[in-house]
Amino acid sequence: MVRDGEPRYRAIAADLAAKIHAGVYPAGSALPAQRELSTAYGVTLMTLRQALRELSDEGLIVQQAGRGTFVSPPHLAYRLGSLRSLTDDLREQGHTVRTTVVAAGLTDAPMFGPGALRLERVREFAGRPSVHQVSWVPAPHGERLLGTDFATTALYAALTAIGVTVARATETITPALLPGPSRRHLAAPADAPVFISSRVTYALDGATVVADRAVILGDAMEIRAERAANGLSLTWTTGSQTWPRSESS
């Protein structure tokens, strides 16, 4: 219902938003074509596009050139304060995560030397590939993990199973545009915004047990941190993180 003096496009935006929240248009689904919607609401295409622009600004829809308009997928929270795997975080939030192992094998890693395990995975949730992750585990742990089914076993869980206790991790998260090596895995355009997470995980004795680099689609994830007086602190810096190195295309 249109209130007196209310612009028509705002009433349409409110109606579409209500339908999205009610599940009439589920997350990730396509909205009807613009001409179909403009006819249904009895407005011009210009008025309808104003309504869609408002929904886009609110993050409720995503407009893809040549494909149409889609309800935004659910945004998942990447929690900075937890020392767990990304998959564990997402599953705790009730999301189904599918892991595809792209490659797993021993390699001569510049940062670790020979015998390091290089593990490359793609994480899919909400029906789309959203995270491209490359992890390195130095010898001798990498050799002991070779043969693990990482499609069903989290890396941290696999380390625990061979007696490695994870003590702490340092992590840098930077915004960027989708790097070339990740484009074919995430099926996104070159100008897609992403978060790049570079994490180094240490054992109780201070030895590095995992070096990890994850490219996370920016429209699929948001980052949250819970702060307390003696808890997590965040440091904002300038410049770029170059290690672990990006894979060459």
In short:
With 249 residues, this protein is α+β, with helices and mostly antiparallel strands. It is built from 7 helices and 10 strands.
Number of helices: 7
Q: Which spans have pLDDT < 50 for at least 5 consecutive residues?
A: 236-249
Q: What is the CATH superfamily classification of the largest domain?
A: Chorismate lyase-like
Specify the structural class: alpha+beta
Number of domains: 2
Q: Averaging pLDDT over every residue, what do you get?
A: 81
CATH architecture of the largest domain: 3-Layer(aba) Sandwich
Strand order of the largest sheet: 4-5-6-9-8-7
- How far apart lie the N and C ends? 54 Å
**Helix coverage percent:** 10-25%
What sort of overall outline do the alpha carbons produce when their principal axes are compared?
Answer: elongated
Secondary-structure element string: HHHEEEHEEEHHEHEEE
Q: What is the number of strand segments?
A: 10
Structural Rg: 22 Å
Q: Do you know the CATH topology of the largest domain?
A: Chorismate lyase
